[in-house]
Every structure is written in C-alpha cells, then in structure tokens.
Amino acid sequence: MDVQRFDAKKLSLLAAIMGSFVVGLDSTVVNVALPSISNDLGGGLAGQQWVSNAYLLALGSLILIGGSLGDVLGERRVFAIGVGGFGLVSVVCALAPSIEVLIAGRALQGVFGALLTPSALAVIVSAFPPGERSAAIGSWTAWSGISTVIGPLAGGYLVDATSWRWIFAINVPFVLATLMVVAVAVPKRERARRHQPIDFLGAVLCALGLAGPVFALIRQPELGWTAPGVVVPAVAGIALLAAFLFWEARAPHPMLPLGLFRRRNFTVGNIETFAMYGGLGITFFFLVLYLQQVAGYDALQAGLATLPTTLVMFALSKRAGRLADKLGPRWFMGFGPIVAAAGLALLSRLGATIDYWTDVLPGLIVFSLGLSATVAPLTATVLADADESNAGIASGVNNAIARVAGLLAIAALGAVVAASFASSIDRELSGRRLSPAAQHAVTEAKRRTLAKADVSRVPPAERPLVAKAVEDASVHAFHLGMGLSAALVALGGLLGLVGIVNPRRTVRSEDCAGGQLAGQPADAAREPELPVLSLASRHTGSVPSAP
What we know:
There is one protein chain. The chain has helices at residues 8-41, 44-73, 75-94, 99-127, 130-161, 166-169, 171-185, 200-223, 228-248, 264-293, 299-305, 307-327, 330-347, 356-384, 391-428, 436-448, 463-499, 534-539. The chain is mainly α.
C-alpha cells in the first residue's frame, strides 16, 4: 500500500478518534447491560458496581503512567499497545464465565485505556503542527463525544436482541481497523529519551497515590465521608501523592517533570480544567437524575434530553478549534465557559413540571455553545505549552485532573445538595405531627435526593403535605446544584480571561520580503513561566524550562 497517497495527518487523526471512540463506547454501553450481566453471572448490586468501578479505578490510577510511557517509548507504540490490549481484554470480558473474571477483565480494560487515552492526544500533537492542533483536537472531541450517544442505544439493542456479551465482542473489529490505520499512517518517532530509564518508583507512588482518592470517591456515596473505607484510602493516597511529588522533584529522570507547572498556560489551563469538569460532572449527574426522579422522564427520555449537547459539540468543536488556532485561545477559554454558565443558569429555573422545548432545550443550547467554544482550545492550549517530548504526560495530567474533578465534585457538592434537600424537607414540615407512614415516606425520600415521595401508603389527609414538601425540596436542591455548577464553570472562564496568554504566532513566508523572516516570532514569546515549583528545577537537570 502506497502510504504517500494518503494524508498521513488525517489518518493519524482517524486512528486517534477510532481508539478513543472504542473506549468511550465501551464505558457507556456497559451501564445499560448491568442488569442483564447480574442476571446471568450473579454478584448482586456489589458485582454490578464493581463492573463499572474496576474500570474507573484502574483508569484513574494509571493514566499519568500511560502518558509518561508514551513520552519515553513513543506515542505510536504505546497507543498501539493500548488499543490492541483493550481489544484482547474485550474478548476476555465477552467470554467471562463468572462475575469475578468480568470484573478482572474490566480492570485490565482500565489499564489499557490508561495507555490509550493520553497517547491518542499525543499522536495528534505529533502529527499536526501547532497552528492546526486545535482544529484537530476539536474533531477528536466531536467524534469521541458521539460514542456517548451511540453507546446506550447500541448497547440496549444488543442486550435485547442478542446477549450482553456482544457489547464487548463488538469492540474487536473497531480495534483491528484502528491497528491497521496505525500501521500505515501514524509515523514512528525515536524515543525522546532513549537512554533514560523508566521512573518505576515514581510510577508506583503515582498509581497508589491516585488509586486512594479515586477509590474513596467511588465508595463515598455508599459509605459516607467518615467511614474508614473512605477516610483511610483518601488519607493514604494523599500522603503517597505528596511522596510522589517529593520524589519527582529529586529524581534524576522523573516521569512527571515538575517544571511543566512553571509554564503559565499549562498550569492555568489545568486549573481551568478542574473547575470546568467539576461543573460538568455536577451538571449531567443532577440533570439526568432530576429529569427521571422529579420530572417523570424514563431512562431513555432522560438520555435523549442531553443529545443536543453532543450534536452541537459535534457541529462546532472543530470550527472553534480552527478559530482558536487563528485568533488565540484566550477569548475562547474565557468567554466560552461564561456562556456555558449562562446556559446552566437558565436550567436552574426548572420547576417540578417541565416542558422540554421551552424549559430544558434553550438552556442546553446556550450551555452547549459555550462548551463547544471551550473544550478544544482548552485541551490544545495545555498540550501546546508542553514540549512534544512531554505531550503524553501533559495529556495524562489533563485527563487525570478532568476525571478526578468530576468524581470529587459529584461526591463533595453532591453531599451539599443532599444536605440541602433534607434540611428543606425538615424546614417545611417543622412543627407538623406526622403519622408513622408519613415519616417513613419522608425518610425514604431523603435517601434518594431529588425525588418525589411515594405517598401511596400515607393517610390521604397527609399526602398533599408530604408530596409538596419533598417536591419543593427537590426543586430547591436542584437549583442549588445547578447554581454551584454554573459558579464552577464561570470560575473556569474567569481563570481563562485572567491567566491565559495567547501564544506567539509565526509570520507566513508570503507576508515576508523574500521569505527571510518566515517562521520567526511575530509577537510575544512563549507564555512566561510561573514562579512555582522552582525548587524542582534546582534539584534535577532533566526538568525542562520554558525557552
């Protein structure tokens, strides 16, 4: 096959999209199949939870290591290993004879997903010059997002028409096609640090350090904040992360060069990522919950309700990325989140009775426009402020921050919303003497958060009172959740406006007399370094500094 007949850049982008698509499809399709898996393999509720959580735990714990290995061994090699391993383990999951084997397979999928995800972005960085990366990342974002729509629909069809095992087996042809594209299109790159050994101690400290908080956040909704099963792994993980940073500042060949955080756009972009994805996690968690448990939507209707967000991002993400390449990312990363926050403010007006077209859709459209303007420029800016030899670890850092932000926001702010829900009920029913049946209905409602009370067994005289108290509390708690989400997203926008500096552009040869100045700086130099973590740069000569 004559590879020169193909556009290698576009095929590299296709490979990154296909690999990420498989991971996104698998992570969403599994949730639809959990009841069928439980009926077939057993395991009960705990088994269902760990089919999902084993994947999340492995992915969240190892994604930084996956990014680092891409920089050391080459993003093409690590991406191919991630894709191939994910496909192989998908076969194991499809043939799993027991719930234990399936959970182990899901954990291994998380391991290979941690190799694949940051390497996919590193492949894009390697294939596209800086002036084209935002548009390429916009395409990657748009197509990867489509998997979240296809996943539940395809999964529901496969489970109903055939078997849950096909939701894993269907990955295999996608994986084989992706590996073929990688083989013919993604260029090989020499190891950035051929003689540098892998930082094994840093990898172990990082994996265990991230595993602790991720595990704690996964278990928190079930156990509560004060349970030993939450407190112990959280504290141990934080201590190990501190040890990881201490070691990385002194290691001769660190997996995470702390000097990256001295670069302004890298640091500010990751802080904005934390705020943005924390807000996004709250938004979709509570919106889907509210539509089902208060507004009366079924699961399919609630899932389809958020479809406009995916469609708008699919249509606009590449265009926003291309404009950010031309105009600079600052305004997109600043005003995009503010527009998205305005959309969330519109959603915070929802009542218990909802008309989708007039109440939900306008807010979602405004929110989606702001999100589309933000995501591709944000990701591209974080990666652009790292050297190409550090693109994998830069992507790993950004991915890890986004995932932990979502988990942390749902756990921490979810507890705030739940407390508000319970206190609102108590406040409205204060001074009322309720029958045991009414008290039981109120207690059950408090356990669910954002719910309508089951008053079927409540004495008729008390039904309107209990139902109204729970409904009003649900609306109030939802408004609080959307308000907190809007505040976090808007904070991300303010950080972008204040902290992001547009990178310098280069003068095109056609704009220069005789082309002598082509490729030379046209305006400001690379973003200035921040005066943070300077201790790290004094302890190791391998930490890169901004030119």
